[in-house]
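cron nightly-structures :: item 1 of 1
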Amino acid sequence: MNMIKDRFQIEVKNLIYGICLLALGLLMPIIITEKTFDIYGKFSLIVDDKSITMLIDAAISLVILNSIRALPHYLGAYLIADSLRQKVESKFFIIMKCSLTFIMIYLVYIFIDFAYDIKYDFSMVAISIILVILILISKELHTVSMPKRLIDISIFLIGLQFLDLIPFLTDYKIGHGEISLDIKNLGILFGLSEFMDYFFITMTFIFLFFGIIYMIQLSKENKINLLSSMNMRAKNKIYKSHLEALELRNYREINNIAHDIKTPLTTIQGLSNLAELRSDDFKIKEYMGKISSSVDLIIDMVNELKDQDNKNMTSTENLMEGVLSYIYSNYSDIDINYRNNVKDSKVYVNRIRMTRAFINLIENSINAIEKVDGKGPIEISVFKGEDGIYFIFKDYGIGINDKMLSKIWTIGYSESESTGLGLAFIKKVIQNHDGSINIESREGEYTKATIILNDEGDVYD
């Protein structure tokens, strides 16, 4: 069973639609009959007036009747076969899908004959339609929308139905249905067999021509989509490599800077501890203790800078103070509504990277607002929920449409002239902290980012 799962998968939606259409196909003979189009009623007019127009009308009515009846089970069989996808390429799998399609359609003909005593003519016309479906299955046009593929099958099906009305093909066991034979016999009776041959061959040719052209277009569209998908994957690999190279370069530079900073800090800490031990002055001891504590804090931050997995406990207020301090110092005219209902709640984070992630989100909001009118507040709220500490960032800028919203986490995506690494970096930082991030947006109205981090209790716990 596991081996089957590793090799194959099922598109459930297509499978359900296919089963429903196949079931509808089994019911069509009692839903739509020749009485629906009053075909036999037109026969009396043909006999009375010897009208070619009425004969053609009756023939086209039959084509429409047969097409409507047949479409559900042909389309249903195709959808069921298409719902079976292979993860590992195999010619046997294609043969299996083609065989399944043929069997399903053949069983529909047998069922209708048995259930309704209606003889569906399983002739070369039916086999030709099945062949068209098998060609589409073999082409695996999975990147082309399903309605387009179903339209192509419908064009071929309608075109091939005209073959049943060509008198000279009767001897080749084509068009042996009761109504088809009646129409052809009327044509022969009035000396119109040659006209019917040419007319219905022309109609068949027109539909098949458009069906073939449309199939070629679908094949081209599929190839373009596949190439586009390959290019996108290649582009993502390039961006990932670029991101990894940037991280490696930054890591080396940060390591060098951190080493250079820690050396004088260690000296300061050592001298402050020594001064604290040797001095009898209470004030000096207090000052030296504060210097030593500040140095400890800076050393922790340097360690966080060096190692993204180096995390420390901090309050939500301390974390947000660092974020807002940067924003206010670089964007003096920005309007921010900040509310923190859990200032003393603790989160276990790498403050440097989490601060950078929050700053990136706010800068995205600033850019979104500037694209509208440069006004409007950015709302930031922090509160406690059932599953952790919530950090909400909301702006009323340009927003993101639904199509773009699904692509925002893709490395390389950007609506500004940047590298497109910002949102991917934010997501990576949040995930590295066992948190979650969700972005919802409505184009032209707002964008809201919700980050949830684990609640580590309060400062005074």
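cron nightly-structures :: done
The mean pLDDT is 82.
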